[in-house]
Amino acid sequence: MASGHGPRRARIAFSDSAAKQLEELTTEREIHALDRALVALSVTPESGTPIPGNASGPELREYADEIEAVRILYCLTALRTVVVIAYIEV
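^ that's the sequence the OP posted. Answer follows.
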């Protein structure tokens, strides 16, 4: 029997520097644009592009939405249930 719920979304967590960037958002347009990007990442965490780098650390990914003018650098946990936001540009 189906539960009636959609697929489970990933949780979003912010690094200290990303949280500080959140505090600096002032316009409704910036907040709305970021909100849309975060929803997209919570639904499909793999949607960002991998950033080439050192294999010893977590793989960084970049999500960019040129229409909303948002860029987010993030990594996924091993189980792909949490997206840790490292950098936000709106």
